[in-house]
Amino acid sequence: MDLESGSHINPAKRQSWRSVVMLAYQSLGVVYGDLSTSPLYVYKSTFADDIEHSESNDEIYGVLSFVFWTLTLVPLLKYVLIVLRADDNGEGGTFALYSLLVRHARVGFIPNGQVADEELLAYNKKDDHLGLLNGDPSAPTGGAMTAPWMRRLLEKHQISQRMLLVLALLGTCMVIGDGVLTPAISVFSAVSGLELSMSKEHHKYVEVPVACLILVCLFALQQYGTHRLGFLFAPIVVIWLMCISVIGAYNIFYWNPHVYQALSPYYMYKFLKKTRRGGWMSLGGVLLCITGSEAMYADLGHFSQSSIKIAFTFVVYPSLLLAYMGQAAYISQHHVIQNNYRIGFYVSVPERLRWPVLAIAILAAVVGSQSVITGTFSIIKQCTALGCFPRVKIVHTSSKIGGQVYIPEINWILMLLCLAVTIGFRDTKHLGNAQGLAVIIVMLVTTCLMSLVIVLCWHKNIFLAICFVVFFGTIEVLFFSASLIKFLEGAWVPIALSFVLMTVMCIWHYGTRKKYEFDVQNKVPINWLLSLGPALGFVRVRGIGLIHTELISGIPAIFSHFVTNLPAFHQVLVFLCIKSVPVPHVLPEERFLVGRVGPKEYRSYRVIVRYGYHDIHKDELEFEKDLVSSIAEFIQSAGHEQNGYVEATENGDEKMMVVSAGFRFHEERAVEPVEAPGPSNSKAMHSSPIPPKKRVRFVLPRSPKLEKSTREELQDLMEAREAGMAFILGHSYMRAKSGSSLIKRLVINFGYEFLRRNCRGPMYAVSIPHASTLEVGMIYNV
């Protein structure tokens, strides 16, 4: 009997482990491409100065010791054991941490937030995953007493909220900067293997053109998406990891089997004591061994915690250690180095294997670069959704995988910048200095935000947060100082890029907030609409009129401005607000928040459509169908709020309800006769016959439970939908008020207006037919 029960249980466990192992295998090609190619340039960047000329192995053992402990403490201890637990409903990255803090401390700068948003399932999901610190995640600890005063501090002082936002944007800017630098250094380092097969005078004329050609091809292929070749990514990285592992093991046993002694931390102390300032500056090269570690957290949404942990702990981590130990073993027996490139990766590869390894290295570098570029597109999409980046064209390259996006403008800008730094530096050392500073700043931002998450979200004792910041912050500040000292040797690039990006983000965010504040201050009270009577004071024509607004209550000024000049409108009036909420995904059944604007006879509704920062916006036809269905569902269920619907009251003037787009009209297709052409067109008629037109007619479902007034309201909605929709969009012009400061005038009149004129329109307006669109121009004096 026991054996039978075991036979029923074990297959499920085996299946579960199979799926985890498969995800771990797939994560190797998406998450670890950048991290796995770091052996190509770590030692070359570290020994770029005069350290390699010493006849002693102390410097070599010291660098290997630093590499080992850096790999162990940062990716393994910090990310795998701690940071990966801070997921935002399965999503990771800088904005995931910021989103957690926004929800728990209410420090966000999303202007049109609602109390109803806090009823979302993703909003209230428990975020305490740190089971190793507490047996019961929901049980209060010492942090329960610490969190309130820290939360009050953040909520009370706007300066602290702005600092938190700037910190998140800084991390985002550095991630985008990494999208420029990682492809450059990865591809250039992989191509540098060509220098071993040609003279020093010739290889410098070959490396840069070949690297640039590969980069151009890489960025040119982004528009086709990665789903077509994605199945090759994992095998390429696996083969690469096997190559560096086998070569590393061979070098250890053949050249120096005692290299394992360098794993002792004593050699780090000995290295710094002997090399002093030169050794400290060389830590900027050691830092490159953990480039790509942040991808473990940023790409968490595509995989699972278990799969990413297994892939790193049992495959990537041992492979990298063998690779670095093997290179150190070879270098320890080859102190006479004539050229700088001799300290690189390829010199430790047996001569017969160099060409195959070179080909695999280039493919692995392309895979690693591809992952970083895709991650850059993803984080810009998040910034755009939360109003922190100008609107850009977002193309979803895969209908099955929502996270795969392509942004044309950003892609070509990244390509030009990548080619510029490759041609400008033409050197692994300067590229490494630039990339190292970008990577360590992202890690410092993660450490700072993570310490707040430990207290505010996990409700742990503040002592644990302080220990986390002090321990990992000390390590990262050490590397940060070593990278910053090389500001003039390439480290200025990420600083310059982040300064430009931060300026753009802050200007856009500031202008967006000022525009919303103007809308709130100038909105028309609902009493104005009620005073017009059921006819609303003007002619009601057939169809549905959608007035887009950022407001969640009240009547937007563009509507009153419109009807003042054109006293006619549609029989069904819908005030539509499409907004983002600080969660990664919103369930379809929670997406629509619907309410009436005025009595039932007015046929006026407010619909708030909520998207997470990772959600895909639906196309026009599907969105229209769901929008009308949600209004119909609201009409049908308006008198039955208690039947499983969540009710919310906003500002006391409108009662709204969360509904799903479950209501469906029946469609009947009727064939309309086509008028016969005139005599002059008879010849054309014979050559190309005109097919009869098909007209879709919507019919109410037969239900005896519907009341007469409800059926009449649904009938009006059905007839309006049959007649078609018209979109009323505001076309705003921002101007700073007279008497504003010079900085504000520059930011609003030039900065924000320049970005607004040159960025894309709202996502919902891209696919709307021009014949169905009306634009109302308004000047905003902010």
> How would you sum up the major sheet?
8 strands, mixed
Give Rg in angstroms.
Answer: 30 Å
Rounded to the nearest angstrom, the distance between the terminal CA atoms is 77 Å
- Strand order in the largest sheet: 7-8-5-6-4-3-11-12
Q: How would you sum up the global shape? A: elongated
Alpha-beta classification: alpha/beta
Number of strands: 12
- Report helical residue fraction: 40-55%
Total DSSP helices: 25
Strand content of the residues, in percent?
5-15%
Outline the low-pLDDT stretches.
1-15, 126-145, 641-653, 676-690
Keywords: Ion transport, Membrane, Potassium, Potassium transport, Transmembrane, Transmembrane helix, Transport
Function: Potassium transporter.
Transmembrane segments: 20-40, 60-81, 164-185, 205-222, 229-253, 278-298, 310-333, 353-380, 401-425, 437-456, 463-485, 491-511
Subcellular location: Membrane
Describe the structure in brief.
The protein is 55% helix and 11% strand. The chain contains 25 helices and 12 strands. The protein starts with a helix and ends with a strand.
Polypeptide structure, described:
This protein is 55% helix and 11% strand. The protein contains 25 helices and twelve strands. It has an eight-stranded mixed β-sheet. α4 runs antiparallel to α14 (305-332) and α8 (158-191) runs antiparallel to α15. The relative contact order is 0.12.
Key phrases:
two-stranded antiparallel ribbon, elongated, disordered N terminus
Set down the secondary structure blueprint.
Blueprint: H1 2-30, H2 33-36, H3 42-46, H4 58-80, H5 94-105, H6 121-124, H7 143-156, H8 158-191, H9 200-220, H10 230-255, H11 266-275, H12 277-286, H13 294-298, H14 305-332, H15 354-385, E1 395-396, E2 405-406, H16 408-425, H17 428-456, H18 462-484, H19 492-521, H20 526-530, E3 539-548, H21 557-565, E4 568-581, E5 592-596, E6 604-612, H22 620-637, E7 647-650, E8 654-659, E9 666-672, H23 682-687, E10 693-699, H24 708-723, E11 725-735, H25 742-758, E12 773-781
